[in-house]
Amino acid sequence: MKTKVYKFVLASLFLMIAILLTSCEKELNVQQNFPFEVKVMPVPKSVSQGQIVEIRCQITTPENYVENQYFIRYFQFDGSGNLHIGNAEPLLPNDTYELPNKIFRLYYQSLSQETTMFSIWISDSFGNEQKVDFEFTNIRKEE
């Protein structure tokens, strides 16, 4: 009887040690992937050909993970125009550009006499993405 109890205690002790050793992780489980929202200040609904519109944007997150990077791409599907980040060269449609900060300004110059529509996509290094649509009707200048 003593040997059965001894074997049971020994087996239980071995099982508990095995569970404890395998359940320990060497690295902390730190959440890095946070959802985000893109906030845009109001912009005019109408622009004239050649006019530049400033679009103020801010990326907001519930938490801040320092190593997360944000990217922008855009596509203009109606009309024509140029989109810039600050004083940089115009963005090319469907090309991805890194955003240096969570607060940034875009500058759109309408080159069309018609309504212009385009979308921007902001994504992060974890694949989260937000889409923002813009539509500007044209103000025809009186001759």
Automatic annotation (TrEMBL):
Gene3D superfamilies recorded: Uncharacterised protein PF12988, DUF3872
One Pfam family from the record: TraQ_transposon
Signal peptide: 1-23
Recorded superkingdom: Bacteria
InterPro entries according to UniProt: TraQ_bacteroidetes (IPR024355), TraQ_sf (IPR038707)
Record key words, sorted: Signal
Name of the molecule in the record: Conjugal transfer protein TraQ
Source organism: Capnocytophaga cynodegmi
